[in-house]
Amino acid sequence: MAAVVHDLRRTVGYLVADNRGRVIGRVESPMYGTAPDVPDALAVKVGRFFARRRRMVPAEAIAKIDGASGVIGLRVDRDTIPSFL
Q1: Which residue in 80, 35, 38, 37 sits closest to 57, CA to CA?
Q2: How many domains does the chain have?
Q3: pLDDT tens digits for range 8-38
């Protein structure tokens, strides 16, 4: 099975939903790690106003990006996505 390559640089503002369809949050920015010009994860804002947290969604967890509706579907549950500052 071949891996699907997603362009994560154009996903700022997209909603992110887990494999059950529950919304996790909204994409804040792409995250770069292994290569300086290719993002390999997304920073996703969770919550509103003062209680804002962020989660790191690795590219491998993304099942589908729907550009028409602005939604990113994940192949994993929301509890497996790590949190960070």
Answers
A1: 80
A2: 1
A3: 989 999 999 999 999 999 999 999 988 888 8
